[in-house]
U-box domain-containing protein 42
Amino acid sequence: MASDYVVYNIVHMLHNSSPEELNTSLVRILLSLTRSPDAITRIVSVIKENDMSHALIELLNSPKEELNIACAKLLTTLSPHIGHTISDRLCRTRGQPESLIEKLERTQITEKHAIFTNFLAKLPYQNLTLNLALLEKNTVTTILQRFNEVQRGETRTSRFTRPYLEGLVGILVRFTATLYDPQILKMARAHNLTSVFTELLISTAGSDEVQRLAAVGLENLSSESVNLSKIPQEIQVKKSSLQRIFSGCFTIHPTKEYKLMACPIHRGVCSSHETFCLLDAKAVERLIGCLESENSKVVGASLAAIITLLDERVDVDKSVVLLSEANAVRRVLGALKDHREESVRRRSLWVIEKFLMRGGEGSVVFDDISRDRSLPSTLVRAFHHGEGSTRQMAERILRHLNRMPGFSNKVVL
């Protein structure tokens, strides 16, 4: 059933057939075949070699809802393999991609709404063509309106509400992957996406996936903060003028106004909407709170966002102090103990090592870490079972704490 011959003929029939019932059956057959790794490889190969992706995308415009849903599911499944091709074709199809975010008109959220939004959310975030097409159609405003309607109870909820909201947030996150584009940067500032994602971290209508996506969005935005934060030019100019006038009389020191305006982490003027500063958006405390989630993906994404505040391009010493005051040390140690996933373990160790190196012996941070009685055994476990970089970090932390046992050269796996 999954041979090249069969797959080719199914795809070819889909391309040339007109009855919608037949198209629906053919798409469902292909969708069922994708459960097999070998079959999905053949399907992808046939579609790429015969440039058939446009035939599937055209079916999204069909008036038959069953065909729409089946086709969107198939395209979502194929996205990891030919996502950029699908994105480019979608942008060249009449009525797309804007029609995938249908106007609800305060009616009940259906499976079609959820499938369509998640299809857009799962396409490659870095595809600038699709992101600009969505931006041009004012999709961001529509998404925020839909989300607010659900939050206020103006739209009837259903079992598809949660996946629908997850899809909407996923579409918002995709824009944060292409902030280098001036139009997208302008949009992110205009809609204050930093505050939007910060609120989603504790949204009552959210879910673990919404929290994870919000943390990913904040990570992407925060990564740009150091580039966008600038020393206040107006104060620099004022200071230079005074220095010229009173040159030789006395030394002009930085004003209190400048100290108040400068972000302690990014060293320049910061705000949540202009530079996407997590500190100004009050997102730091919420991200730290997410470290207590039972969902490892939420914890991993939150750690990744926090790590942007410990980048070597920012004032790491100030970041360590601020994070320590927000009880980050205890939460990170807790995440390391509670979750065995490699991404959580690696990121937790990275943060702990940064705290130790920057805090220094005798500091509050160092004392908090060194007094944790269960940490050595957790580090030994990471040394034995972690991947390369994880093992190295665990070893360095153990040595820094003078807790390194006498391991043999042979590592127990």
